[in-house]
Amino acid sequence: xxxxxxxxxxxxxxxxxxxxxxxxxSAPSSWHRVGVVALLVxxxxxxxxxxTVNGMANQFYAAAASAxxxxxxxxxxxSLDPQNFITVDKPPLSQWVMGLxxxxxxxxxxxxxxPEALMAVGAxxxxxxxxxxxxxxxxGLLAGAALALTPVAALMFRFNNPDxxxxxxxxxxxxxxxxxxxxxxARWLALAGxxxxxAFLAKMLEGVMVVPALAAAYLLAAPVPxxxxxxHLLGGAASFAAAAGWFVLLTMWWPAxxxxxxxxxxxxxxxxxxxxxxxxxxxxxxxxxxxxxxxxKPAAMSVFGAxxxxxxxxxxxxxxxxxxxxxPAALLAAVLVIIARGRAPRTDRIRAATVIFGGWxxxxxxxxxxxxxxxxxxxxxxxxxxxxxxFAIGVQQCxxxxxxxxYRAGFVVLVLGTAVWSWWVLGRNVGWLPGLRWxxxxxxxAASLALIGTLAARRRGFxxxxxxxxxxxxxxxxxxxxxxxxxxxxQGGGPSVGPPRPGxxxxxxxxxxxxxxxxxxxxxxxxxxxxVDRSSNAAALELSSDTAVMAIGGxxxxxxxxxxxxxxxxxxxxxxxxxxxxxxxxxxPGRTPRSHADIARWVAANFPAMQVxxxxxWDLSKPSRSAQQQP
Length: 631
Hints:
Strands 2-1-3-5-4 form a 5-stranded mixed sheet, covered by helices on one side. About 55% of the residues are buried. The radius of gyration is 26 Å and the shape is globular. It has 26 helices and 5 strands. It is mostly helical. It has 2 domains: about 55-400 and about 475-485, no CATH class; about 515-620, no CATH class. The longest helix is centred in the middle third of the chain and has 28 residues, at about 225-255.
């Protein structure tokens, strides 16, 4: 058994010959198959372990999943409520998955979150397959393990935000592009376009930021003439347009009066949402206000992960904990691999893979680092596969060139530098397992120094074992934070990784619900039991009362629905029973977003207020005696 393991380690992705373009591949060994099974089963067990500890996770998306589990139109459009007043402010692909699971198994925390964990298994498997195809199965296993042990992956693949399905689709697109470069370019690029269309229907433009890297790699390395490469790329673009465009056309052709309002848009159009609220406006910092009223400035900063804008964003603050562990090594690996493959043929697969994953990391990372708008640290999940793949490819390429002192040094710098960086990151939370940072540093340093000596003495078998220990030590910090993330409950709009940290705010939802209020809403018989400002408040009431609640103004409170006239019509037609203040008792509706202050003033002037728990509620079925109802 030891001999088999040593032989496998010595052939850590043995470098294929420069020629031919598509080198022959041997059948995977039994050890490789065991490794893949262990990787996928281990990811499934880790990510599904006590997954319901997260409860409803982000109530904003949980309410939409609940609505989709009971109403097909709500499922189709991603409505926040089953009466289809307004959607969530993202495309509905993630809601389709969770809503369909709810329809099949009944809506619950488990039916909502288990599909998210299974997406992690899919992403890890696809990343393994992509990297193994160009750098060998052991490099593929390292890439898959690095992704599974990334804290932000453990956070978001156990959560109900749309990031999980987006990253799964992006990883699928990268895998298809690797296959397209290998052979059958047209077919695989069409599948890559299909995957990117799914990524777009998860989080719009964020899901397609990988496109420049994929297109550049295919143009560079596909083993067909340039004209054919361009035609294949046009075919992939057409596939993307079909996969994403049908839903855009659906929202245009479906009468606006009979579908929910598209939250986040200013004119109820999907493309306005793409290029406005969720597009250029978010990058430039011109997106709508965020619901942080009532929070202190430090708390609001913590909720939205505000960091210093610039190159260091991904390495500092909450970003550093979520994604920063392997980012320096991945960037260095991209440089080392490009240098190592400098004299390879144009069609070299390893260089092409570096363009894919290194380009993905560079483009997406720069946008995340320099965007001005609202940014959560968990957005960094979008680069997690690229970081993991680039780290694995770099380690493999330096290892197969270990006879060269420069690449031997490169291998040591990759693993020991990662350990030093992990030591620094762990030191920022020194109160948690203080000995861990020193264990990570000590183990990796000892293995790396011993590795240098054994390589110089040409003791190959022992060197391979030390290399594995050094790599494991380098990844131990990220792995420990991943385990701590899995072991903690995460809820709200701004979840964070790792162990709980004093003073860190993890949610921006301001609760307005209480047991008496929930009972009162359950007793209603109108289409909407109540109306309340902002979607996060409406979602909390929907989940606790199991009724439809009208979210005035959408997520930010500034969406132009309903107008005062529309709301007056709904009240007159007995379509809504109560108006609930989103503020604590005694403050009244005066802190309603300015865009809908007219509704709050009209309600306060024409209907009696009552205290329900700590919340002010207006009974819209009983106008005040002196009220003069407006038509």
